[in-house]
User: Which sequence fits this backbone?
């Protein structure tokens, strides 16, 4: 009876999911309701988790609940610690959920809501969740080893080296792009800048409270900090209305870029936990709360999506970023579908907390599903806007011009009507002077989120407050990623340099701290500066570069996973990781080729350099710099592709050797130790 | 009827306590409690400073995703 009921229930879920996906895919003309996306996503995740992840767990990984995990065997009360599975899930989700699943889908919405939604659902269920799950399990079986260590052990020294370089490269590009998003969101915005500036004294106050008044009461002080941040957002409107104060908090993009670089250096080089740790907590508090609130808001309001399923820009002429739907939709959305960076978290803190192997399914596969759901929310937030408004916000001045009337006319000529008066009214409603040319995705997401929140709670009068709440939310946790990322990259460089000269590896030796912090900040600062000065808005060049490097890292992670699966004598199931690997190779290598060699100067780095070099008249310093930057971006892309090709070749040699019997299939797992947790629990 | 209501209450209480435990872990309150237990210290300004010193470097090595 139970089995019949189960078959019936899952059959219903399957039918409902198929109907929802069908409605999204086949509906044309009239706008559709966002609930179709919510239902399709819920059904896909439920089916993926119930059937696909279970198949992987049983047939390939053979999860063993009796095998002691490193959290049990190596428990030290610090890094290794047996932890409740829901707690690990919360920890893991808080670590993997960043601005990526919010920004990528917003940018990819230029193709329409359909490509992004399909890629987020299929990518997560068949690729991203699988990668996070298998890497987590393999790390658990190797005492919590990192991806680079596993790559070295299982593929060889080339794999380890490439994984290390890819991690550093992706960190640097990510930090440059993340900083650019903040700059574009805060430039000429006294309200937003004031709110973010106020998080500094609020964090210091929280630090003093934590240290002196109620030591260790982080949740309590984060709630208090959150109330103060809300007060700062409220106060921001008065700052923006006062000419003298507004002037004080109005910065150009280059000035903001310099301020963020100084901040990144200070956060990495100085012992400023009193500021950074409380702000990190505040950011997590706001992040988890806002994501939950947005989900509720979407379900309650169930807004209509005004963006069409597919736009004319699938042909590669999009104003947000140039490039055809294939491969660019699939590298623009990384974190909501598959992100190589997650492999670092799945082989970092999380495997050291897992109590039972069987829990890796819920934590690895399940947390990525939750992140994918965040990406679906971002697609909805971007697509609830009128398309003309979306393109006015996200198109750089280099494409649509700076004059409002000209920009509105250009966008309207694409078939997405918008007027200068509409944009002026919207800017006024959200408390900004202008919303034109706000590239980067964050302002568009903020407008969409403000639309959803204001229609669910508070009405149009609160639109400006919700907009600046959204900007604060995004900027706050991007800044947190900037300081955490700069320190992580600094530690990695120090570790490597320590092999050349021992004192450089000491994380307490100040000359080394200063030098490596400066090196890392200079590296991502260079990309940030390049983006700020780019006439096409920076995102056009840098976001694809980030997407390519992130997914090349996923390629390395899937190479490691496939190699281990083949070594486990499960080659007949290797398609589970091999298929997403093949897809990623096709996507990233095609995208890299286009970014390097495409003849269209908006797409190809070298083509743009050529066009600028051949320009009339004497070359200015600024033009020479843009030419150099384009060549540098092409070189970075090329180096990453060559390195990942080496890992692929090395992995393929391992696979062929094992399958032909010329190479021993020996996995480097820790020996089996029976868990005592089962007996303890009776 | 009463027993099913009781069951719902038990499940809700369990879910709430798991949520609280998760938040305490995510916000490092649990790590601080473990530090105090391990070091045999009572919560104070000094012990929190000592916890931060020990905890900071490990925490700073943890990447956060994009």
Assistant:
């Amino acid at each position: 009876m139970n089995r019949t009921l189960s078959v019936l229930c899952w059959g219903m879920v399957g039918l409902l999911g198929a109907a929802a996906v069908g409605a999204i895919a086949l509906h044309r003309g009239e706008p559709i309701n966002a609930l179709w996306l919510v239902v399709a996503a819920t059904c896909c995740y439920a089916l993926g988790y119930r059937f696909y992840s279970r198949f992987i767990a049983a047939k390939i990984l053979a999860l063993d609940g009796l095998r002691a995990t490193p959290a049990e065997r190596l428990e030290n009360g610090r890094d290794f610690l047996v932890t409740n599975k829901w707690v690990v899930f919360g920890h893991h989700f808080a670590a993997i959920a960043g601005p990526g699943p919010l920004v990528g889908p917003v940018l990819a919405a230029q193709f329409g809501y359909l490509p992004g939604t399909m890629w987020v659902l299929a990518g997560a269920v068949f690729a991203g969740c699988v990668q996070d799950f298998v890497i987590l399990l393999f790390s658990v079986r190797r005492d919590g080893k990192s991806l680079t260590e596993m790559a070295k052990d299982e593929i060889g020294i080339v794999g380890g080296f490439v994984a290390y370089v890819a991690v550093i490269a992706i960190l640097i590009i990510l930090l440059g792009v993340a900083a650019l998003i903040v700059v574009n969101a805060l430039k000429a915005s006294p309200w937003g800048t004031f709110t973010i500036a106020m998080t500094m004294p609020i964090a210091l106050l929280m630090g003093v409270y934590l240290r002196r008044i109620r030591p260790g009461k982080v949740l309590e002080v984060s709630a208090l900090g959150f109330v103060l941040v809300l007060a700062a957002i409220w106060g921001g409107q008065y700052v923006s209305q006062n000419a003298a104060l507004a002037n004080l908090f109005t910065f150009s993009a280059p000035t903001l870029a310099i301020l963020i670089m100084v901040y990144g250096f200070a956060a990495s080089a100085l012992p400023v936990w009193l500021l950074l740790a409380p702000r990190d907590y505040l950011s997590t508090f706001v992040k988890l709360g806002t994501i939950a609130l947005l989900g509720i808001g979407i379900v309650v309001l169930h807004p209509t999506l005004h963006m069409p399923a597919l736009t004319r820009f699938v042909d590669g002429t999009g104003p947000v970023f140039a490039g055809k739907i294939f491969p660019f939709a699939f590298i623009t959305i990384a974190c909501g579908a598959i992100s190589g960076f997650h492999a670092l978290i799945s082989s970092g803190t999380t495997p050291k907390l897992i109590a039972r192997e069987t829990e890796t399914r819920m934590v690895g596969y399940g947390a990525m599903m939750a992140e994918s759901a965040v990406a679906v929310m971002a697609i909805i937030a971007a697509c609830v806007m009128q398309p003309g408004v979306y393109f006015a916000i996200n198109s750089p001045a280099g494409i649509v011009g700076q004059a409002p009337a000209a920009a509105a006319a250009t966008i309207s000529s694409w078939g997405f009507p918008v007027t200068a008066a509409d944009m002026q009214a919207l800017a006024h409603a959200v408390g900004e002077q202008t919303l034109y040319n706000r590239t980067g995705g964050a302002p568009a997401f903020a407008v969409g989120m403000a639309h959803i929140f204001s229609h669910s709670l508070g009405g149009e009068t609160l639109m400006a407050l919700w907009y600046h709440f959204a900007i604060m939310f995004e900027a706050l946790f991007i800044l947190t990623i900037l300081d955490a990322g700069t320190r992580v990259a600094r530690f990695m460089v120090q570790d490597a340099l320590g092999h050349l000269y021992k004192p450089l590896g000491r994380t307490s030796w100040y000359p080394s701290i200063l030098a490596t912090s400066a090196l890392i900040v200079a590296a991502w600062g260079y990309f940030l500066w390049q983006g700020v000065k780019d006439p096409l808005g920076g995102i056009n060049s840098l976001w694809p570069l980030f997407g390519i490097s992130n997914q090349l890292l996923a390629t390395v992670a899937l190479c490691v996973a496939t190699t281990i699966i083949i070594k486990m004598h499960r080659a007949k199931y290797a398609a589970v990781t091999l298929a997403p690997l093949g897809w990623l190779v096709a996507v990233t290598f095609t995208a890299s080729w286009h970014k390097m060699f495409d003849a269209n100067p908006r797409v190809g780095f070298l083509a743009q350099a050529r066009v600028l070099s051949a320009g009339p008249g004497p070359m200015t310093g600024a033009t020479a710099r843009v030419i150099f930057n384009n060549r540098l971006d092409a070189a970075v892309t090329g180096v990453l592709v060559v390195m990942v090709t080496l890992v692929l070749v090395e992995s393929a040699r391992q696979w062929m050797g094992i399958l032909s019997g010329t190479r021993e299939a020996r996995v480097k797992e820790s020996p089996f130790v029976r868990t005592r947790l089962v007996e303890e629990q009776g | 009827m009463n027993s099913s209501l009781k069951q719902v209450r038990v499940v809700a209480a369990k879910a709430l306590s798991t949520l609280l435990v998760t938040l305490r872990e995510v916000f490092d309150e649990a790590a601080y409690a473990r530090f105090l237990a391990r070091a045999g210290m009572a919560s104070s300004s000094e012990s929190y400073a000592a916890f931060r010193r020990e905890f900071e470097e490990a925490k700073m090595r943890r990447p956060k995703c994009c």
The radius of gyration of chain B is 18 Å. The CA atoms of residues 16 and 22 of chain B lie 10 Å apart. Chain B has one domain: 2-60.
